[in-house]
Amino acid sequence: MAGTRRRGPGMAIGMVGGMMRGLVGAAALVLLSACATAGQTVAQSETQAVAEAPQPPPAALEARNTAEGQRYGFAVRRPIMAAACPTCVWGPFALVTKTIMAREGWDIQICWNCNQHESPRYVASGRVPHDLTPGEIELGDPPPPKGSVDFGVTNQRLLRQHYHGIGDYAADGPQPQLRLIAAFEDPAFLVVAATKSSGVTDLAQIRARRMPVRIFIGNPDDSLVLPILQHYGITRAELESWGGRFVSRQQAMANGVDVLINRSASTANNEEARIWQWATQALELNFLALPPVVLDRLVNEQGYSRVTLPLGYFRGVTQAIPTVEQSGQAVIARADMPEEDAYILAKTIDENRLEYLWSIRPFVLDPRNVWHVGDVPLHPGAARYYREVGYMR
After folding, report:
1. CATH code at 230?
2. Which of 4, 8, 16, 386 is the most exposed place for a label (fewest CB within 10 A)?
3. What share of residues in the chain are helix, strand, coil (percent, to 5)?
4. Which of 325, 342, 364 is the last residue in one of the domains?
């Protein structure tokens, strides 16, 4: 056709190449656009996830940032709490406390082996926890934090004795720096039982007949059980002289036991009480009542309270048995604990008190008693909170 320019082979190839380059460029633009959109979506999702994730309270972040190099203590919201093994009384109690205080930005470090009679001493002196012993490792204790203990949990009897420097703490002298944060009820009975196969129906028979029985107490030198042994004239030396002996919980559960005289009896399965779970199922037991004169002495000299072991509390308890108990654990600190921290601790414990019921033992916070253990001073921060909510005036 006139005016039409003929395309040679080179021109055709050039046109095809141009078209291909255009298609590739367009595809690249689409891909880049898609990637940008996807990247924006991912970034938005990540930002949203971070925003929705629980964040530490500002106070905790500020303390963490401004107290560089300080690993433990109230200032950095990482106080060390004296407790006991994970399956003992105070270990699970401390774990509940750690859980509820985490909501306030605290990261409580639990000393799982600041236990037994040493527990209030760790708090009173701010002692650094000792390394784990073989026995503590066997119990499953995690390694303790290596810093000064800031506060802790102990039982109310030990708190009163250590504060006054009496009983097991006479050599320490008074510890006026100890302060109460919160008191809990935690009932456990003093129970006496003997296997039917032993032939013991009265503890007086052991000495009178020189019976070679294996006796479980827990701690044979326990001052709270000593009046019972004294009343019946049972001493370690004489018991061993006619073939009997005191046995530990491990020995009793592995090799057998004839008589149990123990003040930690309960249906809970913590280390201190779990022998009763075993004994009441594995053994046929007679449960024995102590005479009123012994119960009176335990009340007047050792601070017990009279209670009744209910019918059916354990397998083999066929009637209600008059006995005694010492209830109560206590959260304690020193006078140098910052007032605001004591306030927050007392407030958080109280507001979450029902969570302590769902532990290895049912720890009960009674608003009428939470603020006092004998004449041990209440920390001013805790007192401020208990007055605000009307528990004390």
Report:
1. 3.40.190.10
2. 4
3. 45, 15, 40
4. 325
